[in-house]
Amino acid sequence: MTDKLGLGEIAGTHGELNVWGEIIDPGGQVGSGMVEIADQLILGGAQAASGVLNISGGSVLAAQVIAGQGIGALGTIGVTGGTFGSPTVTLGGTVGATGELSVSGGSFAATTLAVGPSGHGSIAVSGGTFAAQDVTVGNPNESNAVGSLTLSGGTTDISGELVLSGAGEAQSITNNATLNVSGNALVNLSGSTIVGLRDQAVSGNGIGAINMYEGSLIASNVIAGQGIGAFGTIGISGGSFQADSLTLGSGGNAAGSVTQTGGDVFFKNLPCLTRRVH
User: Fold this and answer.
1) The pLDDT of residue 254
2) Is residue 94 part of a domain?
3) What is the phi-psi region of residue 206: left when phi exceeds 0, alpha when psi lies from -120 to 50, beta otherwise?
């Protein structure tokens, strides 16, 4: 166990940790078993620095993870096997920083996950298991916030709230909070899903989008557009999209839309919108 670990914490430097095999050595090769960080794990924590964590076996537990903190910084987490867990994960924690997470095998679990709260954040799941309680994509209070979830395989479970919140006013035209579902991805959203959230205290765009191409998405409560001027879009061109309830526009002149050109759609509270298009 270590209290804190920083990979790329000095400007312009690069640090890498590979969790994969049989031994632990000073070169960063860490054997199977448990790697536990009691405080922070920082990947790319300074200007133009980069930090990489690759997990293909064993397990990594950290109390807090920040990937991308500093102008031009890049923090990357790749999970191809083994397990990764943390109560708090931030991808793209400061303006100008980028944080990336990819899961193609093994399992990833977090309690609170912020994707692009100030900088750029992205998650790509193509296999394995991705689980989180509360996930926020973008930030209506930050003009440079950009976040995306791209799910093309594996299983994704979000048990609490998923918020695709958009960004502040400097990004008033571009949609900066997206969920893309394709391939054979299985997506379970057990709590509330808010597509497009605008904080009434700021003049951001509050634009969010779900794009359904293939795969399966099962949701509980979906709100497209929440807060004054917020706008949420759901586009379905394939796959299966199911929700217990759907609300289009909640609060002020908030608005939401559902566009279906293919696939299957089922809303329990709005059977008139349920249909199959092939």
Assistant:
1) 87
2) yes
3) left
In a domain, 45, yes or no: yes
Residue 272, pLDDT > 70, answer no
* DSSP-derived 3-state class of residue 215: coil
pLDDT at 29 (0 to 100): 54
pLDDT at residue number 171: 46
Q: Cα angle at 119 between 118 and 121, to 5 degrees?
A: 110
Element of type H or E holding 5: strand 5-7
Cα–Cα nearest to 36, from 6, 62, 18, 72: 62
Give the pLDDT confidence of 174-215 residue by residue, as tens digits.
557 999 999 999 999 999 999 998 865 555 567 899 999 999
Q: How confident is the model over 85-141, as pLDDT tens digits?
A: 999 999 999 999 999 999 999 999 999 999 999 999 999 999 999 999 999 999 877
Q: Could you tell me the residue range of the domain that residue 191 belongs to?
A: 5-225
In a domain, 171, yes or no: yes
Label each residue of 129-179 as H, E or C.
Answer: EEEEEEEEEECCCCCCCEEEEEECCCEEEECCCEEEEECCHHHCCCCCEEE
State the Rg of the chain over Cα: 19
> What whole-number distance in Å separates Cα of residue 22 and Cα of residue 208?
44
| 3 state DSSP class of 237 | coil
Q: Is residue 262 part of a domain?
A: no
Pairwise pLDDT comparison (260 vs 272), residue with the higher score: 260
Q: Pick from 104, 222, 209, 105: which is nearest to 167 by CA?
A: 209
The number of folded domains in the chain is 1
Confidence of residue 273 (pLDDT cuts 50, 70, 90): low
Token digits of residue 162: 């998923």
